[in-house]
Amino acid sequence: MSSYHSEERDIPNPGVTIGISDLAKAQLQSFTGYEGAAFKDMIDAFRFAVSIAIAKCGDQVPEMQNQSGTTLYNLGSFDGSQIFSEAIKIVAPTPSQEVPLTRLIRAYGEKGIELMLEYCEGDPSSFDLDEVLKNIYSTSGYEAQGGV
Prior knowledge:
By secondary structure, the protein is mostly helical. The chain has helices spanning about 20-30, 40-55, 75-80, 85-90, 95-100, 100-120, 130-140, and strands spanning about 15-20, 70-75. It starts with 16 loop residues before the first strand and ends in a 9-residue tail after the last helix.
């Protein structure tokens, strides 16, 4: 059983709230809140983190440590249009039927934060969104399939 199947007791309401580890939250905050930051606020940074992890990991749901989490967002405020919910259901159909969506968002989000830190070599102030997007695009296979 993958680690994303951990017990629900570490998040107050696993069906409604999205939590992340305290470490991931601190790392996410480092991408926001200063002049020239890549993201205006944490919710945009977290949405980007989830997006790049979905793009990079696909149906291989990232491993997640069984650690307590801090509530970060309500599912409705994070994914009001259900773009992430639908993307995860398409990319990872089996896990999305077995695990609360909020747990999968957390797994992808924490992996995405790791990827963001890798892209900037651990220095969020040097994070270049354009370069990251070019890297994701060039390694996604879409370009190789004739994408524009």
